[in-house]
Design a protein that fits this description.
The structure is a single chain. This protein is an alpha/beta fold. The protein has a single domain, classed as Alpha-Beta Barrel (TIM Barrel), CATH 3.20.20.70. Helices cover 28% and strands 17% of the residues. It contains 11 helices and 12 strands. A 12-stranded mixed sheet has the order 7-8-9-6-5-4-3-2-1-10-11-12. Strand 11 and strand 12 form a beta hairpin. Helix 2 packs across helix 9. 40% of the residues are buried. The structure holds S-adenosylmethionine and iron/sulfur cluster (2 copies). The site of one iron/sulfur cluster has 13 residues, from helix 11. One iron/sulfur cluster binds next to helix 10.
Length: 340
Amino acid sequence: MLNPPAPEVIDQLNRPIKDLRISLTDRCQFRCNYCLPAEHVDVMRQQSQPEKHLSFAEITQVVQAFAELGVNKIRLTGGEPLLRKNLSTLIGNIKKITGIDEVALTTNAGLLDPVLDDLVNAGLDRITISLDALDQDLFTQITGTNVKVDNILRSVDRCLSSRLKQVKINCVIQKGVNEDQIIPMLAHFRGTSVVVRFIEFMDVGNINGWQPKQVFESQQALKLIADRWPISPKPPSNVGEVANRFEFDDGMGEFGLISSISEPFCQDCNRARLSTQGEIYTCLFATQGHHIKALINKPIELLEAISQIWKQRKDQYSSQRKNTTAKNKLPKVEMFVIGG
Ligand code: SAM
Ligand code: SF4
Ligand code: SF4
């Protein structure tokens, strides 16, 4: 007889667990200045221990446990997830798990073209491609790669003509750096089903040297956009949605604004994160993870450990950011270690 399903777990602020983001590697071939600046790449090299990365079989077991506790959405991220070989095998395995409705991927798309068909055939449902500028020089300056914007745009087009259910673009806006890309980016993708999301530059990790004055607030972005096109707000598509959604009044599609700094959304946060080395993080801005690797071959203990971690969760970093003083600031985990 099958075991009865575990009851849904709720954290200390009454938030269920619905979304698991899995960092498949803490390495990346890009050097985005807001995430892994070239001058700090030694931090990645020192921290990364590829021999300790969870195997696909181990990740699948962790997803199984999370699914039993209520998770229905999986996002594969990193570092750059496409640096892991044979990703389609992992996607196929996760798709077989009861309760998982959706597998999504966040990628810089530099290595996407040759593997896209395999990923889609394995069951990938959605993709988010990071693209911070259409202007080639600016893109190169921000990302520190020699990848061509045209190649990324071609990959976006291929995604659009594939069976993927949704294609999104993540565009991190840094004040004084790339706010002039907001209108060109929307002008380019308007009229397609691509949803561009403009993300406020966040104080994730330590090495990006984030300062409040580098944030271009969503309200400023919204004003720029509303001055150019008539737009209207759209209701959230689900509880815990991170983006405020808007649509063009002429029916040419939608875009989103992710305002972690100016308008925190911790109250509905239902996301857990799994690091490459088998730690669970309950907040993007955490200073510490919970090691669960040793429990991976013990399904009952693994389930109980994850359940306890979630039940004790109180995280609401963004809502409390203003109260964080230099005194209570501990080093935070880097974005390339736990993914977006
Ligand atoms: N390498 C992949 C990529 O860039 O799409 C996946 C990992 S990356 C850490 C996930 C997302 O986090 C990307 O869209 C990236 O732009 C975003 N990101 C990284 N650092 C950020 C920061 N400090 N503030 C806001 N977004 C950030
Ligand atoms: Fe790499 Fe993504 Fe971080 Fe850029 S944002 S450095 S692509 S992990
Ligand atoms: Fe969730 Fe932490 Fe972000 Fe708040 S700050 S929305 S708790 S990940």
